[in-house]
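Re: your question from the hallway

Yes, I did run it. Sequences:
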Amino acid sequence: MTSEPLQDRSHAVDPPLGVTRVRQIAPSVGVLAVAFAVGCAFVALSGGNPFHAGAVLLYGAFGTSGNIAGVIAKSVPLILTGLSVAVAFRVGLFNIGGEGQLYAGALVSAALGATDLGLPSFIHLPAVLLAALAAGTVWGVIPGWLKARRGVHEVINTIMLNYIAIQTVDYLVSGPLNAGGYATRTHPIVPAATMPELWSVEPVPVSWGVVVALAACVATAWWLFNTAGGVEFRAVGLNPKASRAVGIADTRKMILGMGLAGGLAGLAGGLEVVGLHHTLYAQFSPGYGFDGIAVALLAQSHPVAIIPVAVLFGALRTADRWLQLVAGVPRDIVIIIQGVAVLGVGLQTALTRRAPAPHGPPVQPATAS
Amino acid sequence: MIGLEILFQLTLAKATPLLLAALGGLYSERSGVVNIGLEGTMLVGAFFGAAGSIHLGSAWLGLAIGALSGAMFGGIHALATVWLRSDPIVSGTAINLLAIGLTGFLLFTMFGARGSSPSAPKLPVIELPVLRASPLAYLALLLVPITWFILFRTKWGLRLRAVGESPETVRSTGLSVIRLRLCAVILSGALAGLGGAHLSLGDLSQFVERMTAGRGFIALAALIFGRWHPIGVLGACLFFGAAEAIADTLQGWTAAIPSQVFLALPFILTMVVLAGFAGRSRPPAALGMVDK
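Structure:
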């Protein structure tokens, strides 16, 4: 797609300087409030009591230490895929490929982590995670390169790459990498490649993966806001033409951005394998890559704001089965809340966008073509 | 050659929902509106098609309900992107989430079921001397020349293509860009809804949660692979349908080529074509631009 103009990605950028933090987060809080109000309406529609359902959700998410551990387990991949989408937004690109990058990372870690190589844990485990990161990076660089060098819209290619990765994993997990038996999964991860436990709690312990995810957020925030490279990176997202005019290699930043985005989602896949499942199942992800889009949008692509939003969505996705079991209302309401929130961010961004010059030229693509 | 005949029928059956959704996407994208919400719109059409068929006792009426529900979801996308100028990718993402949530919710509240709906009256099979397919397959095939005629031989089609290439020019002639695009996106929703209804009323005779399983995205790929042209889209859908038919046939066999290769093939080929490694595929010039 040679001549495709860049989208208005104003949801991906900072509000003007001098705006207080409260005013920064107010739009997202407002959108979430509307989304939850819609959720309450659906609870009432299905014959439930919204207050009861809310209480059940709270208990299901945070009522016991086991539930809290469940929320953390779901939040870790959401933090990283949200961060992945956010990084791409910052350079003006839309990464719908988090799901495929997650699968790529998971696949490589399952392949490298299942054999005892005689290596100590402090070498084997980081090597497996770095490999997951690298695999995700490759899966992100492909659409980044195609966008920067051949002008193909990244949205199409990331969608295509999702399915290619999922089918590849499906084949390898049921075929060459299959552990045998009835379950379609790979051989278990050896102890040397397993992420150690941070909090041993029943039924599912929390691994050190959560620390890795949080560190990734802090490191990304530091890089984006406190280094020259990060400032240039964001400049390309804000105005690719002007950035090129001042000598920033914008196409290289785009490839870097998609590579980073892919790497973060790949890391999420690796942590799922070595920190949670300790094996790789076919279709192990309930759509974390896509949920990352909602997380990044509501966090306005701020690496630290990603954390509370991911925990919120992690909590909803953990507690939704309680909604059905205890409150008797369908758990799908949680997905409706998410959908309304995404629609709301889109509308909110559009409605508050500065009115453009009536006959101003469209923003031209920052591609080499 | 009984085997080949069956493979052709299977190909047509697999291509039908793709073709309907891709032709829908053609109207939307030719008017300049990216529609990645095709996936969710198909899912909604599949659900309401089955629900309508069950409640009204007729697959034909179910089909109408499925198309109508698709048009309504198309309408949401149209209102959000064309009228309120929301980012089309964000809106499409929301449509896909809402479709999964809403169909699951309604499946539970209307039928007390999880996973799949009760069985619905199914569309009849129409037999011609050479073909044996659901009526929607014939409709989809007929829609190819009809769409070609509308786009390239009518005034409305000319305006639609113009609005996808240069909305400023169309506006300067005094026509409403918004109205043209609203029509196109709603029409695309209706066609995607029909495509989804084929899954629950022509292919199976019930709704299954998330039964579109990425077909909306394959339709999107077919639209690009077919170079935003009705004839090209037909070729792409038949080709992708054949890939799925072969994958289905191979499943459960220990074949030399794994079935997943055929399932991934449409996506790989689309990337290759888009990248210009095998002929160029150029989208409408104003595609995806937020209208000023």
